[in-house]
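User: quick one
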Amino acid sequence: MELAFFKPLGIDFFCLGKKFLVFNLVSRNLKIKYRRSILGLFWTLLAPIAMAFVYYFVFQVILNIQVPHYLVFILSGILLWTFFSQTLMEGLESVVGNWGLISKVPIPLQIFPYVGTLTNLVTLLLSLPIIIGAAIIFKTPIGASMVLIPFYFFLLFIMAYSLSFIAGVAFVYFRDLRHLMGIVMQLWFYSTPVIYDENMIPPQYRWVIFLNPVGHIFTGMHTIFINGGWPSLKHASMATIWAIVALYAAILMKKYFFKEVVERI
Amino acid sequence: MSVIRVKNVSKNFKYWSDHPSSLKTVLVDTLRLKFQFGKMEKLCALQDISFEINQGEFVGIMGRNGAGKSTLLKLISGIYTPSTGSIEVDQHIAPLIELGAGFHADLSGYENIFLNAAILGFGRKATLAALPEILDFSELGDMIYMPVKNYSSGMLVRLGFAIATHLEAPIILIDEVLAVGDAGFQQKCLKKIHELHSKRRTIILITHSPNAVKEHCDRCIVIDNHRKIFDGNASDGVNVYLRHVSVGSNSGTC
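Assistant: Done. Structure below.
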C-alpha cells in the first residue's frame, strides 16, 4: 500500500520516464558552464576553495580553533555547502526562468530544478578528488566508512532537489523570495556545522543542529573525512528522516499545486 | 478512427485581483489583521467545445485574435488541463507552437537538434533515425556545427521546422509558424506538410490565412467568442470566418 502510493509519484518526480530529455538538458548545462574556457571547472571550484582558505586562516591561524585537520574539515564542508546553496539559489528561479519553454511545450515543471540539481551534483563529484587529495596529503585517518560517502551524497541530493523544487514553485507565487533567500541561506550556513564542529556548540543550543535538516549530513561527512570513523546511528537516521520529510513535502506540493502553476506564472 | 476527442471542454483562467504577490505583503497584512485574498475573477477562454479529429485529417482552426485558438492548442498538447470536460489524445503529439523550442544560443545547431527533439518528447532512437533527413532539409551544410547565435532567423526557422516535421510524430500541431521564412522556404514547408498529410499523419494548423485553409485543409473549425461556431468543409469555414471577422470583437467573458 505504502509502496503503491510512493512508486508512481516517485517515477514522475525523478523524471525517470524522460531520461533522454534529462540527459540532454544536463549536458547542455555542463557544456555551457564549462566549454567557454578550458579552465571552466577550475573557475567553478575556485570560489569555494578560496573561501575555504579564508576560513582556515581566520579560524585556525587567528582564532586557533580546536579541530583536528581543520583544512580538510573546512574544504569538505564548504564544497558540500556550495553544492547545496547553489542548487537552492538556482532552483528558486528554475521554474519561472524556464517559462518560455513551459508555456510552449508539454514538459514536466520538476525537470528544471531536477536538471539543475544534477548539474551541480556533477560539479560536486568532480570536486571530490580535491577533498580526498587533501585528506591524503594531510594524512587524516581514512577508514572503511568512506563507503558511506555515496549514501550521504544521495541524501544531500534528495534534500537539495526537494527544497529547490519547493522554492521554485513558491517563487511563482511570491516574487520577493529572491531577497529573502539570500538571508535565509546566510543564516542557514552559520547554523549548520560547516565551518565548526557540532561538539563545539554549547549544549543548550544543540537543538538548532538537531532541527537543521542538513546539519546531520554535514556532521556525518565530517566524521568520515576527519576521523575515518563511522557516523553515529542517531545522525545517520536523523539525516535520512529529514531527507524523507523534504521529499514528501515536495511530492505533496507537486500534487496540489502543479496544474495551477502553469497558468500562474 | 478518431485520434483526438475533445468533449465539452471549457477552460477558465482563475486569477485574483488585488491578490498579494509578495510574501512581505502577506506577512505585513497578516500582522495587521488585514489579510484578504482579494477577489477571484474568472477569465473565460473556451466554452463547451466538442469535436473529434480522425487519423490523417488536415484540420485548420481559425478565429480572431483572443478567440481562444491558442488555448485550445495548449489544451490539446497537454500544457493546460481543461476546467471541465475531457480531452483524449491517442498518439504522440509534436506541438509546433514555437519553432526550435529550447534552442540554446551557445550550442551548435547539431547539439540543438538533440536538445529540441528531447524537449518535443522524442527519444534517442527516433532522433538518430531522423537526423540525416533533418540535416538535409535544413540546408545548413557545415553551418550546423556553428553555435546557433550566429544563425540568421531564416536559418533558425529552417532548422526548427526540419526537426519538428522529420521526427515521426503521428500528430502535428502547427501554430502560425509558417508566416516566417522566404517564399521558397514556405513552399518547401507546405510541400513537406502535404507529404506528411499523404502519409496519413494528423495535422492541425492554426492560422489567420484564409488561403492556406482553402488550399490545404480538409476541414475547418472556426472559434469565435470562445465557442465553436463552425465545423466542417474548409471553404465554407473560411466564409464563416471572414463574415465574423468584419463584425464586433471578442468579449472577455463567455
